[in-house]
Write a structure and sequence with these properties.
Elements (H helix, E strand, L loop, with lengths): L2 H16 L15 H18 L5 H14 L2 H8 L11 E5 L9 H9 L3 E5 L7 H12 L7 E3 L9 E5 L2 H10 L5 E4 L3 E5 L6 H12 L9 E7 L5 H7 L9 H16 L4 E3 L4 E4 L9 E7 L2 H10 L4 E5 L27 H7 L1
Parallel strand pairs: 1-2, 1-4, 2-3, 4-5, 6-7, 6-11, 7-10, 9-10
Antiparallel strand pairs: 8-9
């Protein structure tokens, strides 16, 4: 299979996903194989939410729209332009996926297939309905993919390289278990935001997207805030208030109630607004419905702290504070060339 044939297949997949990316699902008769796959995928979206209460239709639609927007000819060509992808001897690449947000392992899946390798997928039990169906669609639009995509629920065996994502504990297990194979091992990371006190109302509204999208369960979600000494949080709370309907979701509300009770019983100082809490804490990872914050007095010292914690940080959200920052509101819409943990998976796949 030629590279352009693989690219064309994923562009068609993007067209298929675009039908499901708005609140009102709209069938596009031009999309290939809709007669076979359209109604079935609507059912898979329903099953995904029934199986995992965090996967609301809104969050699934958001994920699908992100991938539909990414899978265009222009984006894929821009992504692949720096690489030489030819004369690839296909290898079997195992992907062990997380299940914290919908289709969280799709970029690895895409990267393996687009570089000409075969993929062996072990999904999380939390996210098992969407990707197999989309893989079947890929095999219909490009039959040469048949035999290149395998899913397993058992032990991962007979592979040449592996990309594995998990917690800090499972990452240590992965490193031991896969020590004799080329590998990318990912563990827990969190994202942080830096405020200066000069943010606009729109900046803070956009920051709310970075905090609340997917209920804060993604590694690209902001879980820690750095604010200047003396910062008052009035503008922050006003900026995030439009997300208050999130408390109507039972799983989120249960976490909010539980964590609030823990903080109150422990007599921790915290601020809250009826659906969200902020607490001064040095940790990077905060519980659901909670954001940790820390004061800073000196930009240079804060940059040094962030550098020291680089291996624990996925994204830094700010406006003109540091290089490689991400604008407010953009953490959950990464480009194809924005690699998790800043590890170039395409480069890795071309070297195995």
């Amino acid at each position: 299979m030629q590279l352009q044939e693989r690219i064309n297949a994923f562009i068609k997949l993007g067209d298929f996903l675009r039908q499901f990316s708005n609140e009102v699902i709209q069938k596009n008769d031009i999309v290939e194989h809709n007669d076979i796959f359209f109604d079935g995928f609507k059912h898979q979206l329903k099953l995904a939410e029934e199986h995992n209460g965090w996967f609301t239709q809104e969050n699934i639609r958001f994920a699908l729209k992100s991938w539909a927007d990414a899978l265009t000819l222009e984006n894929i060509n821009t992504w692949l332009k720096p690489y030489t992808i030819k004369n690839i001897t296909p290898k079997q690449v195992a992907i062990i996926m997380a299940g914290n947000i919908p289709l969280v392992g799709f970029h690895d899946f895409l990267a393996v297939l687009i570089t000409g390798h075969h993929v062996l997928v072990k999904q999380s039990s939390n996210d098992k309905h969407l990707l197999p169906y989309l893989a079947k669609y890929l095999e219909y639009v490009e039959p040469q993919f048949k035999g290149c995509i395998t899913f397993t629920e058992g032990k991962v065996e007979n592979f040449d390289a592996v990309i594995a994502t998990g917690s800090n504990n499972t990452a240590r297990y992965f490193e031991y278990y896969f020590k004799n194979k080329p590998s990318i091992i990912r563990n827990n990371r969190n994202s942080v935001a830096i405020l200066t006190g000069e943010e606009t109302e729109d900046d803070l509204k956009n920051l709310a997207e970075d905090i609340f999208r997917y209920y804060g369960l993604g590694c690209r979600n902001v879980s820690k805030l750095y604010v200047p000494k003396g910062y008052t949080f009035d503008a922050f709370f006003e900026g995030i208030y439009h997300w208050h309907p999130i408390i109507e979701k039972a799983k989120y509300a249960n976490n909010y109630d539980y964590n609030k009770a823990v903080y109150l019983m422990s007599e921790f100082d915290m601020l809250e607004n009826g659906f969200f809490m902020i607490k001064e804490d040095e940790s990077l990872a905060s519980p659901i419905a909670t954001l940790f914050y820390e004061y800073y007095e000196n930009k240079t010292l804060l940059e040094e702290k962030l550098k020291a914690n680089k291996q624990q940080i996925q994204c830094i959200v700010s406006n003109g504070f540091t290089k490689n920052e991400i604008p407010f509101g953009a953490t959950q819409t990464p480009q194809l060339w924005d690699y998790a943990d800043d590890v170039d998976s395409v480069e890795f796949l071309l070297a195995i």
